C-alpha cells in the first residue's frame, strides 16, 4: 500500500487505518492485542482511538481502549515507532463528570485530556491529535439541521488552536485534526491558523460510506481546496453494508446477537437504526452480489478508491474480520457499478447521514 500524506503535515500513513472503538467493550484485551499485531503484520501502520472509547460510551469503559493500546505497546517493544498514532479529545459533554466538568472545552480541558491520553497510551507523543466533535453546536451523529438557538460555545476556535499549538511546541503532539466537522469549521480553523501562524489542521475524520455520503455535499470541495485530508469512518455503516442484517433486519431472529446494532439500543436510536438506512444497505448489498462481490468488498472498495478519501478507518471485532477488510483493498469497481451506486443514491439519498 502506497503511503498517503495527511494534509500538509509530515505524516505519511497507509490508506487503511485500524479503528479501535470496539476494544474494551465488544473485544477483550487479548483479542484486541491480536488484532493490533495482525494489523501491523499486514502492513497497516495507522491506528485511531479516542479518550471516549470504547463505544457505546459509558463511565465503566471510558478510556479503556487507550489503556489496552498502551498495554500492547508495552508488551511489543518497537511497535510504537512503526505506527502513526491518532487519538481524540472529546468535545463538550453533558452529564459525564467522569470526563470533565462543564459543557465547554477550555484550554485546560484540552491539555488535561492530552496528558491523560499520553499516560494511558504509554507514549511521549501523539502523532495526530483530533477534536472528536466541535466545541460549538453543529448537526452531527445523525442530526442534519443546524439550529442557532442551540449555540452554547464557550471556547473560541482561536483559543483551541493556540492550545494545540502549545502542545505541538511542547513535543506532545505532531499534527492536529478535526472530526465530525462542517465546511465552515474547516475553513475557520485553517483561516485562523494561517492568520496567526498556528498549526494547520491536517485531517478531518467524518462518516463516509455508501449510505452516508454527506461529505460530497460541499465538504469535499472545502477539503480539496484547503489541502486537508479526509479520514473516512464507518465505511461499513456499523455492519449494515456487510449484509448480515439483510435477511431479518436489525432485531429479527437471524440478526447476529453480538453485533453492535443488535446489541446496543443506544446505537439503534442513532442513524444506523433507521429503516431507510437498512433499505439502502439492502440495495447496495444486492448490487454487490449481482456483480460477483461480497457486500463488504463493494462498500470498502467504494471508500478505498474515492478521490475524497485519504485513509479509511476499519473497525473490527476479530482477526478474521480484519483480514477480510484488508483483503478488499485493491478491489476495483467498474464504471457500470459506480453508475448504479449513484443511481441508488439518487433514489434514496443519504439515509444514514
TrEMBL record:
EC number in record: 1.1.1.-
Keywords in alphabetical order: Oxidoreductase
Keyword Manganese: no
Membrane-spanning ranges: none
Classification via Pfam families: Aldo_ket_red (PF00248)
GO MF terms, alphabetically ordered: oxidoreductase activity
Gene3D superfamilies: NADP-dependent oxidoreductase domain
InterPro entries, sorted: AKR, AKR_Detox_Biosynth, NAD(P)_OxRdtase_dom_sf, NADP_OxRdtase_dom
Domain NADP-dependent oxidoreductase: 15-344
CDD domains recorded: AKR_Tas-like
Domain of life: Bacteria
Keyword field contains Phosphoprotein: no
Official protein name in the record: L-glyceraldehyde 3-phosphate reductase
Gene giving rise to this polypeptide: gpr1
